[in-house]
Structures are given as structure tokens and as C-alpha cells.
Amino acid sequence: MAAVLVRDLGVVDYLPTLEAMRKLTAERDVDTPDEIWLLQHPQVFTQGQAGKAEHVLAAGDIPIVQVERGGQVTYHGPGQLVAYLLLDIRRRGLGVRELVSLMEQALVALLADYGISAAPRPDAPGVYVGAAKIASLGLRIRRGCSFHGLALNVDMDLEPFRRINPCGYAGLQMTQMRDLLDEPVAINEVAGRLQVHLQRLLADDKSTG
User: Fold this and answer.
1) CB under 8 Å to 146, separation ≥6 — which residues?
2) Spatial contact of 137 and 100, defined as CB atoms under 8 Å apart
3) pLDDT tens-digit map of 32-68
4) Which of 11, 25, 66, 177 is deepest in the core (most CB within 10 A)?
5) Contact 58/173 with Cβ under 8 angstroms?
6) Which helix (H) or strand (E) holds 103?
7) β-strand 132-142 against 124-129: which pairing, if any?
8) Is 145 a residue of the active site?
9) pLDDT grade for 205, boundaries at 50, 70 and 90
10) Cα–Cα distance between 38 and 6 in angstroms, integer?
11) Does the predicted TM-score (pTM) go above 0.90?
């Protein structure tokens, strides 16, 4: 299986990035390389395809974008590391549940690098430190290919999460790496480590042959 192309996009607006994901997914063919995009977004709430309006409590001046990924409402903002996985999962022989598990494993391994003990939950996709959520997941599969991905709270303002029921769970506590560490953490370093774990797991996955 060919290596995954990784793009570090920096801080990019949500809507143009969404359109770029849709375009790549619509136009790719059997020879198109898989890609992972690492980035941050300016403040935005995104509402999943089955999202319920009542989970947005008080958006204020932060825009809300309706998207086709699974899940309910979540928040993106500076200091949160986003990874979009643009993969031909049919070519890789991966199922959706396997891809979700792979993303969760990568996040758990990354956080362990920093001495943070985290785990997924069977009843709610994402990664948690105790009862607090530190990373959210949401995917869309089209023509056997994935887009959207994961968001890891690194060093950000968590206040906007209080304006919503994160992922549809009222009162869900959110946390971030900065609050669990004794010193500041550089998001570029975290991005590099996440890239390594994602690439390793994609390369090791038995279903890729």
C-alpha cells in the first residue's frame, strides 16, 4: 500500500477546506494517493448530518456550518489540532468501524507520549481522559472514500464548548492537553507525533495486505 501524503495546512478557514475535501473525494480515482490534512480552524461550530438544533445553546458570534459528517454539534478553534483523513478505505480494505478504531488508537498512543492516560468509549466515539472528552471524531464515507476526521484539544479556549451540548451530550466536560501537562505544548510538535502514529497504524493494518 502506497504511503499516505501528509499536508500541514496551518490555520485555514473551515468552508474552503470543506469544499476542498469534497472536491478531492468527488474527483479521485483508483490511482489517487490517500492524504491526511493537519490544520487548525478559526472559531466555528459544525453540525453533523443528524444534528439537532437544540444542542446549540447560545452560538453567539461564532458561525454554525451544517456538514455531512456523522455526529452532532462540535466546536473548532485555534489551538485545536484537526486531522482530516482522505482515504480510499475500499482500496485499503478498511471498514468504517476499523477506521474509527484506528483514529482512536492513534490519539491514545499520542497522548501516552505525553504521559496522558486516555481511552475511547464504546457508547460515544472520541477519546476521553476520565469522564472528560479530549478528542472528537466524525467521518463521512462517499464512493468508498473517507473525509472529515478528528479534532484534538491541545491548547485552546474551551469556553465555546459551553455554548453547545458537545457531540449531543448535555453537560459533557471537555479537557485539553495544556490543562493536563506541567508545561506548554507546541501544537506543531503534537501534529508531527499524530502524523507518525496515524501513518504507522495505517501501514500496520492487516487489512491493507
Assistant:
1) 85, 86, 87, 89, 96, 99, 139, 140
2) yes
3) 999 999 999 999 999 988 888 899 999 999 999 999 9
4) 177
5) no
6) helix 96-113
7) antiparallel
8) no
9) low
10) 7
11) yes
